[in-house]
Write a structure and sequence with these properties.
Number of helices: 16
Order of helices and strands: HHHHHHHHHHHHHHHH
Shape: globular
């Protein structure tokens, strides 16, 4: 076990930044906003993609959580409380929006498609969207939830890899590197199919499995496993890591054009992902206490993430496409929903968690 991690960190603030990055990116993309200023902001934020940041943080904290208390019943109970109360509340709001625009009515309530969608949204197959809902907004009531099955897969993977630690006596670092290599190999196989306009269903499913994203998660886990040895290079050095990452992106992405922003595409991009994940961890342990001073222990990141696409779809349905003010409306409504979710759903649920780090 790595040394006990300090709860005095900035992970809530970093997650909030990651969630806002996703909100701005999706808002700009789907609402087709003409603002050149917003275009510049969104382009700059592409170097700090929210989902990979979330995955790296999960790899660090969830790995630490299970290492701290490997009781399976308690572990899965805590993971459930972290995800599902807020997710189910969001599903109710989404059903309300769809009902208001007539996509859910007396007829659809008795259809198999509707109930299959309800089951998938309430469980772990959130990437499924029935034909009856394909014409609302961007064609998916809450497309951002594709990450939920991936995150749940991470949760299941953690006890499995700890079981391997005990069964086959090689170092934790070796096991983590083996699985990272497998994830990279999966990506190399998956890349030729990823950007095809017409992709077979199997290829689409490959994109919402643990395979393409496991190395993001394990970058955080690898850092946790070695934290006692490397923490001196991270704590209090957030600006240094930001400078290193920024210079790398300027040289290899903007100047030499060796990779593009977004998800992993090649070796140069993999290095950028590594530097970004380490930057995130360093920022979380730099100026510790900043998060609590600003957020007062309120964590709105999950709410911002799960509510922003229903809100964007709502504005599209109301005809706000192309209106620069719509992004402000998205942020205001999504933040309000996130606060209500945190205050009355997520925080009460998290208070039921037992012996955990995250």
């Amino acid at each position: 076990m790595a040394g006990n991690l300090s709860r005095d960190n900035n992970f809530d603030l970093v997650r909030l930044f990651a969630a806002l990055q996703v909100v701005l990116f999706h808002g700009y993309e789907h609402l087709h906003l003409p603002s050149q200023l917003l275009n510049s902001v969104v382009y700059s934020l592409r170097f700090f993609p929210g989902v990979p940041i979330f995955f790296a943080i999960s790899g660090f904290l969830v790995f630490a959580t299970y290492d701290y208390n490997p009781d399976l019943k308690n572990y899965f109970r805590n993971r459930f409380l972290r995800i599902y109360p807020g997710l189910w509340a969001c599903l109710l709001i989404t059903i309300g929006i769809l009902s208001a625009f007539g996509y859910i009515n007396f007829a659809t309530v008795f259809s198999k498609q509707f109930w299959l969608w309800i089951v998938t949204q309430a469980s772990f197959l959130q990437f499924y969207t029935p034909v009856i809902l394909r014409h609302f907004g961007v064609g998916n009531p809450n497309g951002a939830l594709w990450t939920i099955p991936v995150e749940i897969s991470f949760y299941i993977f953690i006890p499995f890899i700890f079981w391997l630690f005990k069964r086959i006596r090689i170092s934790r670092n070796a096991w983590i590197l083996i699985w990272m290599a497998m994830s990279v190999a999966y990506n190399i196989y998956y890349q030729p199919y990823k950007f095809q306009a017409e992709r077979p269903d199997l290829v689409k499913l490959m994109g919402v499995t643990i395979g393409p994203y496991l190395f993001y998660f394990l970058l955080g886990s690898l850092a946790y496993t070695n934290w006692d040895k490397i923490r001196k290079w991270y704590e209090g050095k957030g600006l240094l890591w930001l400078a290193i990452y920024g210079i790398y992106c300027i040289v290899f992405c903007i100047w030499l054009q060796k990779f593009h922003t977004g998800y992993w595409t090649n070796f140069y991009h993999f290095i950028s992902v590594f530097l970004l994940s380490q930057t995130v961890l360093s920022v979380a342990y730099t100026k510790r206490g900043l998060s609590n001073r600003i957020l007062k222990k309120n964590d709105l990141s999950f709410g911002l993430y799960i509510y922003h696409m229903p809100v964007i779809n709502l504005l599209l349905a109301l005809g706000y496409e192309g209106n620069n003010f719509s992004i402000a409306i998205v942020i205001i409504i999504t933040t309000a929903l996130a606060y209500v979710s945190w205050r009355f759903v997520e925080r009460p649920a998290l208070l039921l968690k037992k012996r955990t780090i995250n």
